Amino acid sequence: MSGRGGRATLVAVAVVLAWLVIGGVAGPYAGRLSEVATNDNAAFLPADAEATRAQDLAGQFVDRQTIPALVVYERPSGITDADRQRVIADAARFAQVPGVVTPLPLPIPSEDGQALQVVVPVDDAEGEEIGTVVEQLRDITGGDRDGLSADVSGPAGLLADLIEVFSAIDGPLLLVTLVVVLVILLVVYRSPVLWIFPLLAAGMSYALASVFVYLLADADVLKLNGQAQGILTVLVFGAGTDYALLLIARYREELHRHDRPWAAMRTAWKGAAPAIIASGGTVIVSLLCLLLSSLNSNRALGPVAAIGIAATLLVMLTFLPALLVLGGRWAFWPRRPREDQADPRLEHGIWSRIAGFVARHARPIWLSTAVVLALLTFGLTQLGATTLGQSDLFTQRVDSVDGQEVISRHYPAGTGSPATIFTTEQTARQVAQVAQDVRGVADVRPLSAGPQTGPPDPNAAPTVIDGRVQLDATLTDPPDSDGAERTIRELRVAVHQVPGADAVVGGFTAINVDTSDAAKRDQNVIIPVVLVVIAVILALLLRALLAPVLLIATVLLSFAATLGLCALLFRHVFDFPGVDSSFPLFAFVFLVALGIDYNIFLMSRVREESVRRGARAGVLVGLAVTGGVITSAGIVLAATFSALAVLPLVVLVELGTAVAIGVLIDTIVVRSLLVPALVYDIGPTIWWPGRLSRANGEREARDAG
């Protein structure tokens, strides 16, 4: 035995050293993901979207694609001559900023005489450096001076504020996630040593995932944005800690039955690895279903998150077991498990009592919990999925939002960010007239040849490229508002009806419209596919058909209840205006995939115990020995996703809140009460049509006789 133990120790040492070398190479990439992230909405649109085609056409009318920064000055008592001189001086300095495309148009006065606006075109090729350009523009304006306020808004200002938010992911979000996981592990294990192993393994998982994501994004194989980057961070640490908790719990259980740590780990690995692999595989396949999305941003998130889970599985099933073998029993100090052949249920007293309670009141428990969850689903009527406006994106005030509000007070709110209409030269005049008659359109003017040093001249000869003309339609509503989106939809209907026009409508608002439409299409396509995939995996794992159907039903009920509760919280507690159109799909993929995780953890152990003890006894033992670890895992995952709340972006706060609430409902209510009570009440039939159903039925009939 000593020889086998010595070889096992050497193997563990070799595995740990190999992973430390890998970590040394991969580690630096964890802090470099922002270098390859892209946060331009247009870059994520489907190729066949009308806004994408419009953007391609727009590139033919300019030497360089630009994104406008709108610098707006306001004096409520009226703009003075000194103010005009200051604005002209600022504009001259704007033109000197690297990345600004010159010449700049003349400042545009408001009709009420209280504001001046300078449109500053920023080279779209600047990419993430647009944030730096906007920062320099803001430095030049100097904010408020002598009663004259100055704000930098528009699409470039908004993008700069988003880039600043996402830049917090590499540092603060990772730090908050680490602290949250550390605190929970200390509470769960009550050991000053054991927490090191899962946290070190989770960090290794993140480093390994980061290097693959970085290289693929750098090679333009996938597109990474700040949202996917933030989700990758919390997903790897949350799921990694979950898998670690499951393996460590089984390892501790086996240390009571084996004298050597390596022997205990071998048995624990054989018992826990199938559930961990099935769980991770389910999440990976569910995430890869996002490849069916028509939005490039969703298609990117799927592989990015799937890479994170795959890396986590690999690390948690190799590096972590090796660390635990080397740590031995002393890693659990001061509560070191002894080889005493103790019944595993003895270490789970509270969960044994909960299992007994479930056995005595199975039917009332599953009926009452199902009714409560069903009642929460009525909150879905308050969800109101939409495209969040610029002022609704952030949880705190930012300069781009302040600037947009100033523009809305003194100009047609769409000034500086017009809808662009591309049509044939022969129909340009007719299309312009039709567009002008659309409710919500303030002004329509052609893009004319020559440098634009002032407002567009409606009588100027339009620029003609390959027989096409560009018309700029200024909207009366802010470009990111519901009103502007309605106008774009009506504008498209109107200009598409002009015979021979072959009109295409694009621009900032059109991008939002097409993104929202694509998100709704994705929900209708991807959600059914994910459910079918999960059902197949569960059927193969549990070797039954009835159990997977019921488990998926409980997860769907939990998901609907979570969204209902979140809708009420978002509207009446957080005072959010609604949820982004992508929210339901993201919430579904994460909540259902991760919710099935806990089903797999529980039911794989229930099945294992049912083989030895019978169906109903197997439920009680499975609940008793896994209840604690599943609840701990749920708390860890909920806490890590709630770390997204440190980012001042409503979309991520809502997603983090929904996943946290959903996971807690899933672990505390569904997995601890609803599923065990339902399975116990059904009895052996739960394994229909597998052999276990018949064998358990015969055993329980004999026991009853």
Automatic annotation (TrEMBL):
Keywords: Cell membrane, Membrane, Transmembrane, Transmembrane helix. It is found in: Cell membrane. GO terms for cellular component: plasma membrane. This is Putative drug exporter of the RND superfamily. Pfam families: MMPL. The chain crosses the membrane at residues 171-189, 196-217, 229-251, 272-293, 305-326, 365-385, 525-542, 549-570, 582-602, 614-639, 645-665. It is a multi-pass membrane protein. Belongs to the resistance-nodulation-cell division (RND) (TC 2.A.6) family. MmpL subfamily. InterPro entries: MMPL_dom, Mycobact_MmpL, SSD. Its main location: membrane. The keyword Cytoplasm does not apply. It comes from Micromonospora chokoriensis. Residues 231-326, 552-680 form the SSD domain. Coiled coil: none annotated.
